[in-house]
TrEMBL record:
SMART domains xrefs: CHAD (SM00880), PGAM (SM00855)
A UniProt-annotated Pfam family: CHAD
Residues covered by the CHAD domain: 189-466
Entry-linked Gene3D superfamilies: CHAD domain, Phosphoglycerate mutase-like
Provenance organism: Marinobacter halodurans
Name of the protein in its database record: CHAD domain-containing protein
InterPro entries named among the record's database cross-references: CHAD_dom, CHAD_dom_sf, His_Pase_superF_clade-1, His_PPase_superfam
Superkingdom to which the source organism belongs: Bacteria
């Protein structure tokens, strides 16, 4: 946190959690939090602590929903000194931004102030201070504003910079998913190819909504879902290119590959650090992990990779890629490409992918390099993405694909974990403290390989009647 000598103040504006309207007899001041509001506290408290929202003085409205918000977060956080820095004030039970403005100008706090209150007052205050206003401040949300001033009395309109904007739906994927609309292509009547014209733009719109929470990095599931969408759209466009040969598809495929590569390092570290947390709970390894410095080192690598990803999606190149993809997926050119394919083409593509997968699976042996197992995993992913486009496929077939993907995904994760661990040992563990953990990972990876080798080939769904000459689908 910066002190006053640097001429910078930190202002955190937190809106109370979602409140209940179920009891009409209660005055507004008396309304409590509802169940969703309680969930928001669990999600937001650690995130707010992480950005420093509780490092300074905390002022809050004395309304019941605001008190319960502060008290609920206090109960969640392990910060003993916080209770002494919280002040509840009746004056802050206001819906006027001008009241908050006048109150803030009278503060004498050194550096940071956190204000827990109500809309529209908080949003009005934020937008009066910010050079670039924000649109909303949902319940449980927080705006962190940097103010280049020595004293709070010096605040002026439009002089603040937005440091962070946090919403429960950007911190927790579960909260995010609660309000997301379904894929219109899955709901519409018509052929699978025709419905792709609805599904692909929807996926791209969803990708855009995932950008901000994926960049923040509070919940790794955001990045995981972001990557799934990129791969799903890419798999569809690659299949269309193999079927149609239309060169208009080459540029969007290239853009999607570029964006997928930009996420790989961060996703690997997300998965590794989740495993690291589990190993820390194992008495056999916790001492070695802490003594070797691996825990801190990999958390720092993850933070660096997260910052790099956040910078990446803020670049002009990224925005150009996204706009170009949006334009293409909404274009008449794609509509024409989809329209040129008959209704059996997706099934033909699926059958070809399955045949390729089965040939790769049969060719595997104990002597096969790891890369052959990874290629099989990528092939299976393409099969599953294509299967998602055909609602007529049996549920048992989809379930089998999901189970296979889990098995191959476990092998991929284990391979990444082992590679990162061995590299760290070579760099920073000359004493070999982590050798026993590396040996366990190696054994688990070998067991995953053996499990893959025991898999049967995929039974293709019942054949469809083909029209014309089927093309070979490239991989």
């Amino acid at each position: 946190m910066t002190d006053s000598k640097t001429s910078m103040k930190h202002l955190f504006l937190i809106r109370h959690g979602k409140s209940s309207w179920s009891d009409a007899s209660l005055e507004d001041w008396e309304r409590p939090l509802n169940k969703r509001g309680q969930r928001q506290l669990t999600v937001m408290a650690p995130a707010l602590q992480g950005i420093g929202a509780f490092d300074g003085a905390v002022y809050a409205s004395n309304a019941l929903r605001t008190r319960k918000t502060v008290e609920g977060m206090l109960a969640i956080l392990d910060e003993p000194s916080l209770a002494q820095r919280i002040t509840f004030k009746s004056r802050l039970y206001t819906f006027s931004g001008d009241v908050l403005w006048k109150w803030l100008r009278k503060r004498r706090d050194k550096s940071a102030i956190t204000l827990v209150g109500h809309n529209p007052a908080l949003l009005e205050l934020a937008n009066r201070l910010l050079r670039h206003p924000i649109g909303t401040l949902p319940t449980g949300g927080c705006v962190h504003i940097l103010l280049p001033i020595q004293h709070w009395r010096d605040i002026e309109p439009e002089t603040g910079a937005l440091a962070t904007c946090l919403k429960p739906a950007w911190v927790s994927y579960t909260e995010f998913q609660r309000k997301q609309s379904g894929d219109p292509g899955k709901k519409a009547n018509g052929t699978s190819l025709r419905n792709l014209g609805l599904s692909l733009p929807h996926l791209m719109d969803r990708l855009e909504t995932l950008e901000s929470p994926a960049a923040l990095g509070f919940d790794p599931e955001f990045l995981h879902q972001y990557r799934i969408i990129i791969r799903k759209v890419r798999a569809v466009l690659e299949t269309l290119f193999a079927l149609s040969g239309d060169k208009a598809l080459k540029a969007p495929i290239k853009r999607l590959r570029r964006q997928a590569r930009a996420t790989s390092a961060l996703r690997d570290l997300d998965v590794f650090n989740e495993a690291l947390a589990d190993w820390l709970g194992d008495a056999e390894f916790q001492d070695a992990l802490q003594a070797s410095g691996a825990v801190g080192a990999f958390r720092e690598r993850q933070r660096a990779a997260q910052a790099a990803f956040a910078r990446h999606i803020d670049t002009r190149e990224y925005r150009d890629d996204r706009e170009a993809l949006q334009d293409f997926l909404h274009s008449r050119r794609l509509e024409a490409i989809l329209g040129s394919q008959d209704k059996h083409r997706i099934r033909e593509a699926l059958d070809a992918r399955i045949a390729d997968h089965n040939a790769r699976l049969v060719a595997l042996s104990d002597l096969s390099p790891d890369e052959d197992f990874h290629r099989l995993r990528k092939c299976l992913k393409r099969i599953r993405y294509l299967a998602d486009l055909d609602r007529a496929l049996p549920a048992a077939f989809r379930k089998d694909l999901k189970q296979r993907q889990t098995i191959l995904g476990n092998f991929q994760d284990r391979q990444v974990q082992l590679s990162l661990m061995l590299a760290y040992q070579q760099e920073a563990d000359p004493e070999g403290r982590l050798s026993s953990l590396a040996e366990r990972l190696s054994g688990q990876k070998q067991a995953d390989r053996q499990r893959i080798l025991t898999l049967d080939v995929i039974d293709a769904p019942e054949p469809v009647t083909r029209t014309g000459r089927a093309r070979t689908i490239g991989v």
